[in-house]
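Worked example 3 (structure in, sequence out).
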């Protein structure tokens, strides 16, 4: 009887390990799909991105949301809150901007940015609330160096 219980335990253990492996592979695949180390699908200026959301949000959503894009713009502000850097790029109006939430490994790059710097950032567009939102951003280049 104990041999039978051991065999059942062993089978359950093996099935559990395969299930964990499958779940891990699925999660890794999803995170790789949101990995911005891939080529950008679209290139746009910060003014044009905000203007497209303001003129036709539905069309802009179809064009930009969930896509990896590179945005060229002028740094309006760099903030550090909750251990995350966010770079605000000037948009098409005084109060409009693009909120670029930087990846955790971009601390040094974010710290080099100052108001007025011309930059290209790459990230995943998540849409538009009061501002356009990009997540997992990386600094591609400072264009005023």
């Amino acid at each position: 009887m104990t041999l039978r219980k051991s065999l059942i335990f062993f089978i359950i253990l093996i099935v559990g390990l395969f299930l964990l492996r499958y779940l891990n592979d699925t999660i890794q695949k999803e995170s790789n799909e949101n990995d911005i180390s891939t080529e950008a699908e679209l290139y746009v200026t910060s003014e044009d991105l905000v203007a497209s959301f303001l003129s036709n949000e539905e069309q802009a959503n179809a064009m930009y949301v969930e896509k990896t894009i590179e945005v060229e713009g002028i740094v309006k502000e760099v903030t550090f809150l909750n251990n995350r850097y966010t770079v605000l790029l000037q948009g098409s109006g005084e109060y409009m901007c693009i909120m670029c939430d930087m990846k955790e490994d971009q601390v040094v790059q974010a710290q080099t940015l100052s108001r007025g710097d011309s930059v290209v950032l790459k990230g995943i567009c998540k849409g538009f609330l009061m501002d356009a939102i990009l997540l997992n951003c990386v600094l591609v280049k400072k264009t005023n160096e």
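Notes: The mean pLDDT is 84. The longest strand covers residues 68-81.
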